[in-house]
Amino acid sequence: MTRFFDPGLSALEPYVPGEQPKGIDNLIKLNTNESPYPPCPAAVQALGRRQAEDLRLYPDPACSGLVDAIAGFYGVHTDQVVTGNGSDELLAFLFRGFCPGGAVFADVTYGFYPVFAAMFQRPVTIVPLREDFTLAPADYASKTGTVFIANPNAPTGLALALDQIREVLEQDRDRLVVIDEAYVDFGARSAVPLVRDYDNLVVVQTFSKSRQLAGARLAFAISNPALAAELNTLKFSFNPYSVNRAALAAGEAAMRDREYFDKTRRAIMSDREYTAESLRAMGFHVLESKANFIFAAPNGISAGDYFAALRQRGIIVRYWPDSPRIRDYLRITIGTHDQMASLIRATEEILREVN
Ligand SMILES: *Cc1c(COP(=O)(O)O)cnc(C)c1O
Predict the structure, then answer these.
(1) Ligand 1 atom index nearest CA of 150
(2) pTM as predicted
(3) Which of 70, 178, 206, 295 to mutate to test the pocket of ligand 1 (most atoms within 8 A of CB)?
């Protein structure tokens, strides 16, 4: 540590993103939950020459076109929508501005929550998931601080029903609950409709997983208008232009193309079931995922050896060897049908070799 670095941050351990290898042409990249499909045609079109030339101009700080499209999609008012540079930016604002009493989240969940808590020096209450990785709303009843729940959860893929989220909201209407819906479009129910009844709810969604725009860095929060205004106060106190022109144009196009959105997420859900069933048939323990990935414990081989053997065949998945509760599992992003067929073939080969 240099003598210039804030001693209060000396223990900060940054988030470790999944590997983004340089040449991915010969690899099957199933490690960071991106979509295997390109953005919708209108989004690709929106990134043309005209758009490039307009980059000399600052983007619209109100993000009006995009906010209209999001509000229209969810049937909320535009003053309930705040856009951000990925959910990570919005989550950072929530940890910075909305956690005066600390943050509450599960032991096995999105790895960025503890990092944000450390960065903004928020006390943390960890609520362990149950033995089967389910989240029990009752476990939150006595907890104070702002609650962060990824629904579906990462890396398990397990989803809560809306009634369970309502239960957490009801436990204390003076306690804020943030529902991180990065994966909600793959089969879970969104909590957005609950925003009308609960002013202690913020829902965060991203364009990174179900709308093919991870590289654009784009996300949004939906809440009651008063809380949205406060989120905007933070945004305009930090970087009013955090959503750039290319992201605005592509994001609006992606939000308006429901057909492509539905087609791609249905393909992912169908290939998820195909992959889960195929691995279960080989004796793997595969959790019931409602996300664009599965969480699977291999059978007849250790998770570490399976990870390495896949890697050797050019298939990259995610593995957390240093987290005792999940070190027997791999998280496998759902790619195209062909990619998943390759994964299954590779797995059959690997199991044959070790037996
Ligand atoms: C991927 C992910 C995010 C981050 O999304 P970005 O919008 O790309 O920053 C947020 N929460 C969870 C649970 C995620 O898995």
Answers:
(1) 13
(2) 0.97
(3) 206
